[in-house]
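If you are new to this repository, start here. Below is one unmodified record pulled from the training split, so you can see the exact layout before writing a loader.
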Amino acid sequence: MNDNAPLNEDQLVWGIHPVYELLAARPRSIHEILIEKGKTSRKLQAIIDLARKEQVKVKFTPQFRITGSRQMNHQGVIARIMPFDTMSEEEFLQLLAQNKSPFVLALDSIQDPHNLGAIIRSASAAGVTGLIVPKDRSAPLSGTVAKISAGALAHLPVCQSTNLVRMLQKLKELGIWIYGAIKEGGVSIYQSDFAGPLCLVIGGEEKGIRPLVQEQCDFKVTIPMLREVDSLNASVAAGIMLFEIVRQKNG
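And here is the target side for that same chain:
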């Protein structure tokens, strides 16, 4: 690699916490860690020590040249990543079959990497068993997604499905109920029963769940709102629904 070549933002994870979480969970997904010269702290040293333990290359550099970058608060550390490891459909189904009451999240056409990262963060916090994203109709699992997820992407099992409709059919064969989140016309999430094995489907930012995917949903649920608004942000809606499911499962 040319040391003077600019770095592509999509291939990076930046910031002390996201880099440390990724390094701790998936060290083999990191090509190298770049530390800005002159930056020192106990947390940066912890990253350096862990990288050396995991035999991940650490390079000290005077400055970062990043293409397409906004104001990036990298805190003096950047990880150059390889493509994130995802589970095959068969591996994912085996994981679910081993769980007594799997709690799955499926995303249909989430195109905004910030929304995807925020949803992954909420899903991990809610204890979701695994996440399904379409291979072609989704924001890529990029460094931006990893950063916004605050390290959660490193811990959450993810399956990239080539056919979401077929994948939902396979979940149903395992006895998993499919709940589709729609803007209006569904049953209130507070009147729905989320006690058993389930998969929550969240649709894209503009058009929601595609019609063919909706046809696979056993139940359609919605968030009741007290004032008229066009719709909630996909990541906000996902967070509300995920934690209502958690409340019921723990209740």
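Two things worth knowing about this chain: The two ends are 54 Å apart (CA to CA). The chain has two domains: 7-81, 89-250.
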